[in-house]
Specification:
- The protein has 295 residues and is of the alpha/beta class.
- The protein has nine helices and 16 strands.
- It has two domains: 84 residues, ACT domain (Alpha-Beta Plaits), CATH 3.30.70; 159 residues, Rossmann fold (3-Layer(aba) Sandwich).
- The protein is 29% helix and 34% strand.
- Helix 4 packs parallel to helix 5.
- The chain starts with a strand and ends with a strand.
């Protein structure tokens, strides 16, 4: 089997999907976040990317020529068409074995498949991300851990909410550094919740618990948190801004990430409008992590 991918302009998306869906069942299409935004707005008022990535899985490499012929015949412009063989192997095991340890502030992150000697004065955090997001490699996770490290030096934190917890890496980092904290992880994906709870056991953090919930739906209305971390995406961050205000007290700190620099002002505006102020920003490449507090 083979992976085929190519880039095309946002204006071509409807034509491309209509054409290829007639012949292939494995079509995926998503925005190229590295491209400039277009003038088109989505349902949440964000500018859609001007360029999209199209991916297909092919049974035979020769189908690539068929795809190219279809696009040319329909006069659809595309670029960077690439075909790569899919190697039949245990991809999770390969990822674990090739995962290199990462040092972020006082946190030393590594896989349980490759135990490492934890450097002195750092907290060893074993993370098997598996099917959940959060291994420490992405800029957003690094930004959140950098912010967490600084906050834990300056504040007393006892209750933590990890919204969209994925692998649990952010909440577990707090639990390792501050053993007297109570951490609640929330994710809409039940598999991610299982991974997070597994990682809590792996790291001996009994005060961490992950539950399945669509945002704040399963949380008690009267629950307030000292620290809230939400490393998701810009659009969901804006959508939960009003509910976020209901789970904070005067001294709560919230960390928001998963947003590109060009999305920062829109996310920040949504939170300022409901009563938050910006404390600091962690900038890593094109990704921003915002640290806010109630006004």
């Amino acid at each position: 089997m083979y992976n085929l991918s190519f880039l095309t302009n946002q204006k071509n998306i409807n034509a491309v999907t209509a054409l290829l869906e007639q012949h292939f069942d494995t079509l995926s299409c998503f925005e190229d976040e590295s491209a400039e935004p277009s003038e088109i707005l989505d349902d949440n008022g964000f500018h859609i990317s001007s360029r999209f990535i199209i991916k297909l899985i092919l049974q035979d490499k020769t189908y690539a020529y068929f795809v190219e012929m279809l696009l040319n015949t329909a006069e659809i412009e595309f670029e960077q068409l690439c075909v790569e063989a899919i190697i039949d192997q245990d991809w999770l095991k390969v990822c674990y074995e090739n995962f290199k340890p990462i040092s972020i502030g006082r946190f030393f992150i590594h896989s349980s498949y490759a135990p490492e000697a934890v450097p002195k004065e750092q907290y060893g955090l074993m993370i098997d991300a598996a099917t959940a997001f959060g291994s420490g490699e992405h800029q957003t996770t690094k930004g959140c851990l950098t912010a967490i490290d600084q906050i834990l030096k300056d504040r007393t934190i006892e209750t933590v909410l990890d919204m969209g917890c994925g692998s649990g890496i952010l909440g577990l980092a707090v639990g390792l550094a501050k053993t007297n904290t109570t951490i609640l992880g929330v994710d809409i994906d039940a598999k991610a919740v299982d991974v997070a709870n597994h990682n809590a056991t792996l790291n001996s953090v009994p005060n961490f618990k992950a539950v399945t919930s669509d945002g704040f739906a399963s949380l008690k209305n009267d629950k307030k948190f000292d620290l809230i971390v939400a490393n998701i995406l810009a659009k969901p961050l804006i959508n939960i801004s009003v509910e976020m205000k209901t789970v904070v007290h005067n001294n709560t700190v919230i960390i928001l990430s998963g947003l590109l620099t060009r999305q920062k002002e829109e996310v920040l505006e949504a939170y300022i409008n409901v009563g938050f102020k910006l404390k600091s920003v962690v900038q890593i490449d094109d990704w921003s992590t915002l640290v806010l507090a109630p006004i």
